[in-house]
Amino acid sequence: MPDAEPGPIVHDAEYYILFDQHGDAWAAEDTDLDQRLADLEAKHGRKPNIVHVMWDDMAFGDAGIPALNKIRGFDTPQSNRMAAEGALFTRYMTEVACTPSRAACMTGRYAVRSGMYNVAFPIEAAGLAAEEKSIATVLSDAGYKTAFYGKWHLGDIEESYPFNHGFDET
């Protein structure tokens, strides 16, 4: 039997509340980002590079947002410059620890949906399931080459390794 066409995405109730509050602003941000990406592609003749940096134990505003840096007492001029010259994404619902946050970021879903809601430790014999669609798969489908460097922390079984979730290089 052929695969059925995917239906509309059904979100959790919290999403619909946030969408009611911020939907117009999100749409404007998305339109602006689409235009910026199109302008970069036209200027350079190829899709722009995407570099995603993720690290543990930093609060929102510790880096990349000058006004919040001042409140928090940090000076991060290089991160602020990178955010100003690129695209700073602040619409992300983080989880409480590294493994759930990474799972949510890689899949675009709450960690509980992928079963990655606890911190993974070595010799766990578990991990991100092979059928989970990742951001690397989506970017690959859009013509990007993908790489992952650093702390994966999404399992110690082969199906959970980054090269089995769409990354060309690890």
In short:
This protein is mostly helical and 170 residues long. The chain has helices at 13-44, 66-72, 77-85, 98-107, 111-114, 135-141.
What features would you describe in this structure?
- The protein is an all-alpha fold.
- Helices cover 41% and strands 0% of the residues.
- The longest helix is centred in the first third of the chain and has 32 residues, at 13-44.
- It starts with 12 loop residues before the first helix and ends in a 29-residue tail after the last helix.
- The model has no long low-confidence stretch (mean pLDDT 86).
List key phrases describing it.
about 170 residues; mainly alpha
Structural class: mainly alpha
As a whole number of angstroms, the C-alpha radius of gyration is 18 Å
- The residue ranges in which pLDDT falls below 50 over 5 or more consecutive positions are none
Number of helices: 6
Give me the count of strands: 0
- What is the helical fraction, as a range of percent? 40-55%
Average pLDDT, rounded to a whole number, is 86
Strand fraction band?
under 5%
Give the helix/strand layout.
Blueprint: H1 13-44, H2 66-72, H3 77-85, H4 98-107, H5 111-114, H6 135-141
